[in-house]
Amino acid sequence: MSVSSATEVVDPVPGAGAPHLPRQPDLVQLLTPEGERVEHPDYAIDLDDQQLRELYRDLVLVRRWDVEATALQRQGELGIWASLLGQEAAQVGAGRALQPGDTAFPTYREHGVAWTRGVDPLHVISLFRGVDNGGWDPVATGFNLYTVVIGAQCLHATGYAMGVQRDGSETAVLAFLGDGATSQGEVNEAMIWAASFSAPVVFFCQNNQYAISVPLERQSRVPLYQRAAGFGFPGVRVDGNDVLAVLAVTRAALVAARDGQGPTFIEAFTYRMGAHTTSDDPTRYRLASELEEWKLRDPIARVKAYLSRSGTADQDFFDAVEAEADELAVRIRRGTTEMPDPPGTAMFDQVYAEQTPHLAAQQAQFEAYQASFGEASE
Amino acid sequence: MSVSSATEVVDPVPGAGAPHLPRQPDLVQLLTPEGERVEHPDYAIDLDDQQLRELYRDLVLVRRWDVEATALQRQGELGIWASLLGQEAAQVGAGRALQPGDTAFPTYREHGVAWTRGVDPLHVISLFRGVDNGGWDPVATGFNLYTVVIGAQCLHATGYAMGVQRDGSETAVLAFLGDGATSQGEVNEAMIWAASFSAPVVFFCQNNQYAISVPLERQSRVPLYQRAAGFGFPGVRVDGNDVLAVLAVTRAALVAARDGQGPTFIEAFTYRMGAHTTSDDPTRYRLASELEEWKLRDPIARVKAYLSRSGTADQDFFDAVEAEADELAVRIRRGTTEMPDPPGTAMFDQVYAEQTPHLAAQQAQFEAYQASFGEASE
Amino acid sequence: MSTQTLTIGKALNLGLRRVMEDDAKVMLMGEDIGRLGGVFRITDGLQKDFGEDRVVDTPLAEAGILGTAVGLAMRGYRPVCEIQFDGFVFPAYNQIVTQVAKIHARSRGKLAMPIVIRIPFGGGIGAVEHHSESPEAYFGHTPGLKVVAVSNPVDAYWGIQQAIAHPDPIVFLEPKRRYWDKAEVDTAATPDPLFASRVVRGGDDVTVLAYGPMVKTVLQAAEAAAEEGRSLEVVDLRTLSPLDLDPVVESVRRTGRCVMVHEAPVTLGLGAEIAARITEECFHSLEAPVLRVGGYDTPYPPSKLEEEYLPDLDRVLDAVDRSLEY
Amino acid sequence: MSTQTLTIGKALNLGLRRVMEDDAKVMLMGEDIGRLGGVFRITDGLQKDFGEDRVVDTPLAEAGILGTAVGLAMRGYRPVCEIQFDGFVFPAYNQIVTQVAKIHARSRGKLAMPIVIRIPFGGGIGAVEHHSESPEAYFGHTPGLKVVAVSNPVDAYWGIQQAIAHPDPIVFLEPKRRYWDKAEVDTAATPDPLFASRVVRGGDDVTVLAYGPMVKTVLQAAEAAAEEGRSLEVVDLRTLSPLDLDPVVESVRRTGRCVMVHEAPVTLGLGAEIAARITEECFHSLEAPVLRVGGYDTPYPPSKLEEEYLPDLDRVLDAVDRSLEY
Ligand SMILES: Cc1ncc(C[n+]2csc(CCOP(=O)(O)OP(=O)(O)O)c2C)c(N)n1
Ligand SMILES: Cc1ncc(C[n+]2csc(CCOP(=O)(O)OP(=O)(O)O)c2C)c(N)n1
Ligand SMILES: [Mg+2]
Ligand SMILES: [Mg+2]
């Protein structure tokens, strides 16, 4: 299995003014939108029934979490929520390709990856509730905290991979980014560094077609996976709504990275079926028909169809997953509404590993000031 | 004539871990190091004798200027000097490809381009003497001021080209950068923007093999011209020591830009024969033998050989150019040593187009303070 | 009648529209400012009316926005750059500090840089990390830039037009949590100058200074203080670089006391400069040191803590009390 | 004997060597720091002895240097990043301000950021644009960072080791024009703490504060003043964030007068914060306002003007005189 992109000379990309660009190859796909299993010359995958059912379960539970969080935001329980709706397969596929010792560097939308790393959904929700900046342990989970500044985590992932390399560890690093992020200078620097140091990092770009309202065409006039070739490493485009293909392609790239073959860029071609965040109104910039089209490529429906048709799972299984999802939703709802506010001192106590006298004094003033209200009202 | 890079599937670049990278095509060359005129399938050039002689004259005068400036620095007349030694053909070829309405955005080393734009050498020297940040008029000359912060000018050039586009002007923009600069995020952003807006800008990269002491391999493991394909526009590699090839390739790219075909990336393969600047000691990081090899590809010697052999120029011509160079050197020397220091108020008076009361007050204080010494010593 | 009730957001939108009608060289650039009209809708409808060449949805790269704006300015355009949120201006920092701020000086005046950098700034909207920053001191410490902050719809309407017409680069700070505050705006009036502070409430006991979102907070504090018989003079600084301290000096010489309020971390915030200058200019009149109320010297906290982080009416009054106790 | 005469540059080089010997997790990263040994030769010989994996010549990208350093720190390394010149730190500004400074807080202490950012800073070497900047206030205003500036070989030798051993991110400012200044360094001594200011000359009339390159200038001024019968107390601040003002407060309460000197533009420079804090803490002792001597509020000028731009002995004495005239 090789991680590579064949480049052939074809007609110019319309309007690009570049006569000889590599052809956009077909997406790597292993499961069609209709749920039909297909083969790809470069990417095989061999999962047993149990593994297939677990992928389905991941997809469903992650979507339910997302739906619940969106509802909680609507009800004022969260400040904002960044929905992964439609990107479940990209995230679960990528996340399940990781080995325990690997490390992932997410953006702010990788709840599905968080799930595969065993991060408690409530630890993600606490960020969007404004309690903290993410409650999970990035070291124990191998899942870095969310990074809100677009693209900054790509350099962190690359540096971390340089450390992995120096440690002689046979693990790999998976950096997440969006299509919009590919325009940031820092993201391009990350690719340059990864290439120069042949760092064991895989760049996993969820091309969900939009950066908030801005369509992909503003970020690049050629398919994004082609960017990598310019930096001297392979790029590959995968159907991001096909969990099997994503798993296979990401696995291959991670294997190559662990094996000392350096970075790969994966473009997971997908679609953000919801709003950018709960603050966004996508009707201002995209047509309903587009969404309808993508619904036909739903990442969960096709797995369900395949599981049913192939007899890998029956209705009892689907019902059980549904029930589990209901429980998860309840747990998330209860956990959210019962989540305590942080104490005011939380502002001060972890700014530094070694607190400064100045900040300690400020904290003392703050506490005295807060206490003065207590006294006043007593 | 097309500005393009053929991409073929070949063996991997050694150590790159990328099995299918486009082949590094031969350099575009029209004049061999031995001074033999050769043809290239994509790039023709047709210059009359007069034009050929003028190119030679440019090369010689620019080198003499550079040698003189280096000497002036050694004698303490300049703070520092960034020598173009060895890069004369890349700069003269690129500069002479420009049309009068075009605009160039240099780094800090493009004295040869400055020359072609009619910039007075003393206006460049005043920067290195510490009198100002470049004394020429960037608007009148179509030659922007030098930019010291690596790569920052590439975005300026792209923005300027977007303006050209909006003005409906059929002119083009030429952005200069070094091999090291290709690693800067901002440079990559410039290419992304240029592609997205199909801006009439040509990126002219002098790959002189080093960024101070750091060899190209640290910036990229594939040839730099390939970077462009990742952004969706053509890249081409030209023999940067061949003034004819540089002129032909740059012309073609500028024609394409003026013609609405968007950006091109040109990698001029050359060598910095001197130190990075007069503060640098290249013996710490490169072997003398490397320099010797490149001396055989000297950009001036090959033109002279061609002119002689083809009978385009005779000894009288060469002598006349030599005499002109001597005169230029004298003018530069005299102009430098006689260059007046700026008045102290020059710090204040152009910080803003509309001076602030605060800074005006500071200036007044400064003047009063300075005057107090005058009084004291009177 | 030329008077309408406008929010700050709408006032900015109208101001932008007006200046775009008047000057074909004005261009807007930023992320999502086109079809979406910006995440705060400040540019709503402008792309539709002025076209994609003048209202440019950019790639997602702030250095790119500012760097290409520099080139456009060199070509004679007047770019107005929107930074989506305060916390995302830093990728553009190199272009702002080493290029935008210096090019006029570098070229000895041959190249003008009439660039406006619009930044919705400050906290109080319950946002996640990087959406509530107050980066004004970084710009105030940078020679070559000018910095203004608006606090109300009238200044928003006129200020954006004045800033765009101005020949120097201006960081234009918009108090995002006040975008929805309303006031009457007379669009036919003669505006106050852009680079002038303004006494917004007269008083005798303590001079309290603020800008942007804190002006409202301080006015509320002044109201509350009045009920307790304390008379605060409130100055809206409006221009942060250059500072316009004449009205402040006049005021402090009268009151003998000064409190400076901003959201930014107190250390090396605008309050530091104000304290230094006011102390120098009013040394013999001061009955108390200039006191500063600001954000704590911590990263902006998660939103559940922002009420405690941000200066509020009580903290302003507390500082006023402390000043009066000297 | 453990005492040697060292320049600041060589002291840094030895300090780096010592800490690299002691801690295999220490890595140096920067442009030209390997074979060349850095443009100021601070890392001379270290790549040869510690290898390319620990002394990394990076691609030419400052955001890349800091951003990968963050990842390396997360992996347990202690990256020491060299920024070649002060003026080139700005491409890394986003990583420094939004990531390096915040990650400890963001992770509630689960991720340490023991990164040292070495910056040769300040002017006086006759360089071209962007090679003479004093960006310390930008970092001092950023919660989560610590900032120190060394002024002499002893502090250079120990300070760099202490900074690398420290668990928080530190901007480590090296006075580039003093790199060649020499002093005796006892490499077996017990160093002073990193985050402490130091009285470097006792005196009674005026307290004069400085850091980095200006310490020498101020000491020369004190010498000159002494000849005219004026006794200046000189404090080397050493730590700029957090500030250590206790010795300053003690001193100013005694002298009643304070002058702060730095190269950075005076507006919103460190002097502003010092003035605000000292005035607050010494209000009743001050006989004159804290006076500031700094760079003018202009871009750093072409080198032919830097002598006039930079504070020198005369300007310090002028401020001392003005302080005494109050
Ligand atoms: C440096 C920076 N600039 C701007 C923003 C505001 N912003 C948040 S998400 C976003 C769009 C991101 O698009 P993409 O990378 O495609 O990821 P997606 O949200 O689609 O997953 C923008 C502009 C930001 N967070 N960081
Ligand atoms: C942002 C930035 N970082 C570092 C430097 C210091 N510096 C000056 S020239 C240079 C190397 C540039 O190499 P390259 O781009 O190949 O251009 P060349 O000097 O070879 O012409 C460096 C690192 C700088 N000027 N700007
Ligand atoms: Mg997207
Ligand atoms: Mg080079």
TrEMBL record, chains A, B:
InterPro entries: Alpha-ketoacid_DH_E1_comp (IPR050771), DH_E1 (IPR001017), PdhA/BkdA (IPR017596), THDP-binding (IPR029061). GO terms for molecular function: magnesium ion binding; oxidoreductase activity, acting on the aldehyde or oxo group of donors, disulfide as acceptor. It comes from the Bacteria. GO terms for biological process: branched-chain amino acid catabolic process. Residues 60-327 form the Dehydrogenase E1 component domain. Residues 1-24 are annotated as: Disordered. Its cofactor is thiamine diphosphate. Keywords: Oxidoreductase, Pyruvate, Thiamine pyrophosphate. CDD domains: TPP_E1_PDC_ADC_BCADC. This is Pyruvate dehydrogenase E1 component alpha subunit. It comes from Geodermatophilus africanus.
From TrEMBL, chains C, D:
Residues 6-181 form the Transketolase-like pyrimidine-binding domain. GO terms for molecular function: magnesium ion binding; oxidoreductase activity. SUPFAM superfamilies: Thiamin diphosphate-binding fold (THDP-binding), TK C-terminal domain-like. Its cofactor is thiamine diphosphate. Keywords: Oxidoreductase, Pyruvate, Thiamine pyrophosphate. Gene3D superfamilies: 3.40.50.920, 3.40.50.970. This is Pyruvate dehydrogenase E1 component beta subunit.
